Amino acid sequence: MRIQQVRRSLGEFANRRRIDSRARHTLIMAAALLPVIFLWGCAGIVSGKNTQPQNTQPPQTYLISGTISPIAGGSGATVTLSGAASATTTSDATGNFTFTALANGTYSLTPSHAGYTFTPTSLSVTVNGANLTTGVSFTATAQTYSISGTISPTAGGSGAMVALSGAASATTTANGSGAYTFTGLANGAYTVTPSHTGYTISPVSQNATVNGASVTGINFTATVQTAPTFSISGTISPTVGGSGATVALSGAASASTTANSSGAFTFSGLSNGTYTLTPSHTGYTFSPISQNATVGGANVSGVNFTATAQTAPTYSISGTISPAAGGDLATVTLSGAANTTAIANATGGYTFTGLADGVYTVTPSNSGYTFSPANQAVSVNGANVAGVNFTATVAQSHSVALTWTASTSTVSGYNVYRGTVNGGPYTLVNSAPVAGLSFTDSTVQNGLIYYYVATAVDSSGNESAYSTPAQANVP
């Protein structure tokens, strides 16, 4: 619309002849400027379509957190992050660590701590639009090392006792070649001291420092003692407690021995000095617990001990059978961890005593009575068990009445047989041949099924084959 108006105005000015030169000059300038103004306006309109600044935000970031356990290995551990970004951090006093301001991507985390190894060695994780706070965990395992050496010559080293003290305490016995080893040791300062009855050791002890590696070559030389040596001996009684007991010697020298089948023991090759003897035997206590013995230029004997078998505590199982009529004089059977019986008193009470921990079954019985429950399982575990009760019910007696058809032969009587399996075997019920054609069996037990057969017997004692079985269900 603006372009058309400008062109129409220019045409009208060109057709007028009475326009003075001053006015014509002004109009020409206006006509010349209009296209410029128009072009500027068009440029302004076109460029104005994207003049508003766009609202841009920084990309979202996330965190990765995890834990190194146990605390001893996790506290102060260094964790290195690599992959989509690189960083390091130190876990806190409880082994927790966190990396923040992480973009989406795949990362690798690797822990390290002097004196520890880690499982897994490193862990690959992926950040994808959320914080990663689960499943990032490591287990630290303390590195351990060994101290080893040899005591020579073999005669003095074989069987020598070697004591370790300092950052940890332990003892070991040198093998047949005089070699010894202490394993599972953490970094620290240790002292190694060997001993062997009848030998002096040079040096007396040696220091060894473990610092990130095993220590070898802590060697000693054993020299046979030239001075006279002596012995300490004694007996542990009674024989059952002394035979096979272990006796430890400490003090001026260290050793151990096993008492013989009579409970006697001896330590030989001892130099002058004060010693302590301590016996031990599984299942026994000793009086006294230990004894001191001083060797001063002579053998020492009579260092004796008394062994007493340790007795484990015992417990009881008790209960009542009611009513008293059914419980009085009832027999109660105990089976399982121990087997015994008890007779209930006039009020139906019973007790089993002196029982060790274990599982037992209690079963009552009394002629003419049934019991509910028939039996009970009882577990004794560090305490008496009471209230193992039963109810006695008078048993209803039953009998089976039998009849049969007379034999067509001449007979002197009939025999009646009974079994619990159809087809036998069968057991004779009557004590003498039955003269008639009927018999009542009053010896049946409740709850069983019986099968009866009959035979005919002649005057010579000859007996016929079994009749067809007859079944009787006793309720």
- Tell the overall outline: flat
Supply the CATH superfamily name of the largest domain.
Immunoglobulins
Under the CATH scheme, which architecture of the largest domain would be assigned? Sandwich
Through-space gap between termini: 122 Å
Helix amount = 10-25%
Q: State the domain count.
A: 6
Alpha-beta classification = mainly beta
Low-pLDDT segments, ≥5 res: 1-51
CATH topology category name of the largest domain? Immunoglobulin-like
| Biggest sheet descriptor | 4 strands, mixed
What portion of residues belong to β-strands? over 45%
Can you offer a commentary on this structure?
Strand 18 and strand 19 form a beta hairpin. The protein is mostly beta strands. The chain contains six helices and 38 strands. The protein has six domains: 38 residues; 81 residues, Immunoglobulins (Immunoglobulin-like, Sandwich), CATH 2.60.40.10; 80 residues, Sandwich (Immunoglobulin-like); 80 residues, Sandwich (Immunoglobulin-like), CATH 2.60.40; 80 residues, Immunoglobulin-like (Sandwich); 74 residues, Immunoglobulin-like (Sandwich), CATH 2.60.40. It has a four-stranded mixed β-sheet. Strands 3-2-5-7 form a four-stranded antiparallel β-sheet, with no helix packed on it. The longest helix is centred in the first third of the chain and has 27 residues. It is flat and about 110 Å long. The protein is 12% helix and 46% strand.
